[in-house]
């Protein structure tokens, strides 16, 4: 894969630059942006590459569950919308890989880590899409969770990440509305269509809550990421915000959220929800979810099948460069 010019940034930092550190601390304390040209601690750089590459891989792997339904969309209009959405996700992945490249990590290195199973991507994309209503549930729940998580990332301290998130969030909010609208239409349909919508919500609800990561006391990265103004809220705070947002929307749709413990807590002013299955979450993260093997195999095959495109593009670029040299 092509390497961007910014991939030349050193990945091993001289971590004892007192002036650089003082400037970095100052920028963080002032809630300003760190840019690629700025000195930054090696641990800050590494943490960003960890999160941004995980995010980029999520967008790219996240294309698969929905792509599964493009050829079976129920109408031309739905097919066109779904194709555009999946294409947007490819774009999000590319912005994010570019942001990570500004930190000195080449894209082919990130790709290799993904297909070798050394890199993470969101747990949610290891669940199967069994019916058309899953496109509605993914848009409403998965993109809804993504927006809740990602809007605060528009204020992340690293400039290229924050700027990528602004554009991504605009598109995610369209994605979420289209999912809601699919479910709304199904909920106004036949009993079978309503049952299909409820079944999809039943299967995607808990995994979408797990997208926010482990409970705060088990979140190894949160404290440092928040101190560096990368994350602005803890995993549990965002999860709570998401549940509070979902309850009135579920009511408007006429679907039931599959949690018998869900109740409004007068004392906190929030919707209390039941314990999530964290064992299942760890299994999915450990590569043992329903679709982990299939998702990585598909990504690997797509890369291998695309070899001729990369070769053709490189040959064309060489030809252009030769022509330019001869003309000079
Ligand atoms: N799945 O210390 P923690 C989309 C890992 S796609 C997998 O709390 P952190 C869309 C975590 O990486 C966009 N792994 O971590 C696309 C860490 O492992 P390492 C999806 C998870 O980073 C197509 C360990 O567990 N959104 O919207 O502070 C169609 C401990 O966790 C998960 C993003 O990627 C998980 N759910 O917080 C539709 C958001 N949760 O790295 C929609 C960007 C945790 O120490 N990422 N882990 O080995 C983030 O905001 C944060 O990284 C997280 C986790 C909130 C996910």
TrEMBL record:
Residues 1-11 have a biased composition (Polar residues). Residues 1-20 are annotated as: Disordered. It comes from the Bacteria. This is Phenylacetate-CoA oxygenase subunit PaaA. It comes from Pseudolysinimonas kribbensis.
